[in-house]
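Priority: low. Protein: Signal transduction histidine-protein kinase BarA. Input follows.
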Amino acid sequence: MHDLWLIDVNLPDGNGAQLLAKLRQLRPDTPALAHTADGDMSLHNGLRDAGFSDTLVKPLGRDQLLKAVRRALVNSPGAASAEPSRPPAEIGDWDETAALAALNGQHNHLIALRELFLAELPGVRDAVEQAVGLHDEPTLGSQLHRLQASCGFMGAARLGRAVRQLHHAPESVPAQAGFRAAVAALLH
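Result:
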């Protein structure tokens, strides 16, 4: 059992997306990162659609890899599976431990990034609401994917959970309400 898979996109006997599909049959919740020398964004988007959390471009630095691994582990469905044991109201708005882990313990960076995150959140909320209203799944998926990554970095635990729920059930009225409530709690 592995906590995370790091898979090369181009394998001698196939490709990374095919391998991930086979691995997902055994372990559907293990987060996966793809790595490639190809910087083509359409390839990266296709890999995300195939189930990779992120695509890393080689050559790859140690810090870049470490941050991507932390992000993937914080945002993984496996990490989310521990949450349902607590009612949503009991999940705190901020998870300082997760945020500081994602930012190598840099509290000053966390404060600055949270200010930026909160300043951008109303626009992101509006884009998500519009995509939900228009049933625009590609835009909604893109907005939620970016927001989920930001929630992981910021330690926005309640919003992160609400984003995951909305991503999995965009037509769900409770998921939509949970998203709105989590955003409102941060913007109070």
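The domain at 82-188 is CATH 1.20.120 (Four Helix Bundle (Hemerythrin (Met), subunit A)). The longest strand covers residues 32-36.
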